[in-house]
Amino acid sequence: MASFIDRTGQQFGKWTLLSYEGNKRYQCQCECGTIKSLSTSSLTRGHTHSCGCSHPNKIDLTGNKYGRWSVLSYWGKKNNKRYWNCRCECGTERTVWGGQLRNNSSVSCGCHHKELISSHNLSQSSEYRCWTAMKQRCHNPDNPTYPYYGGRGISVCEEWKNDFMAFYNHVGPKPSPELSLDRIENDRNYEPGNVRWATSIVQANNQRPKRKQKGSSGTCFHT
């Protein structure tokens, strides 16, 4: 077995290794100030040289303001998306996908919409009912539709599971009463980038084969 080599303090590209976390991973700091956990192999083999701050095509959002968000620094990439450390006007700090900032689909940590839900009574809205139904079919084994969702591994992402406003902040208000929540890819979870408001025709074309679903008036249909 190879002996352990402590690389704390060493530099690889723009990364400086701050401390060893165990399991062959180090907490590292980029020259721009971004801190991230990285594997030893990704550093020593040259798979990562920086947090992405040196990428020629990266748009620097640091210092910009989007809605109630102020961008503090670049966080890094996840699933090929660039995330930024942001602070909301209420003081909450969170990493936010740059695409959501630029297209105004995320304007706050949720405090803005909490004010909306209070002033417009969103707890009685169709969006709130769809959010509740989404969680039931994914996480309640007693729900009649659970076998088609939670029973086959479909879940609601942690960001939305206990926070209606995070969900609403992403999907936005339903454009018309005829639309309901749809997963774009049926084998993926209810998560950012995989949901949309869609017509019943679009949803029917997007359903898995041999799937039938019955509902009554007022029911939100989903795939």
Layout of SSEs?
Blueprint: E1 11-12, E2 15-22, E3 25-30, E4 35-39, H1 40-44, E5 65-66, E6 69-78, E7 81-88, E8 93-97, H2 98-102, H3 111-120, H4 126-139, H5 158-161, H6 164-171, E9 180-183, E10 195-198, H7 200-206
Antiparallel strand pairs: 1-2, 2-3, 3-4, 5-6, 6-7, 7-8, 9-10
Description:
This protein is α+β, with helices and mostly antiparallel strands and 223 residues long. Helices cover 24% and strands 24% of the residues. The chain is built from 7 helices and 10 strands. The strands form 3 sheets. It has a 4-stranded antiparallel beta sheet. A hairpin with a 4-residue loop joins β7 and β8. The protein is globular, with a radius of gyration of 21 Å. It starts with 10 loop residues before the first strand and ends in a 17-residue tail after the last helix.
Strand runs, count:
10
Write down the overall geometry: globular
Portion in helices: 10-25%
End-to-end Cα distance, whole Å, is: 50 Å
If helices are DSSP runs of H or I spanning 4 or more residues, what is the number of helices?
A: 7
What is the succession of H and E elements? EEEEHEEEEHHHHHEEH
Unreliable stretches covering 5 or more consecutive residues:
210-219
Helix-and-strand structural type: alpha+beta
- Summarize the biggest pleated sheet: 4 strands, antiparallel
Radius of gyration based on Cα positions: 21 Å
Strand content: 15-25%
Kindly report the spatial arrangement of strands forming the biggest sheet: 1-2-3-4
Please state the average pLDDT score.
83
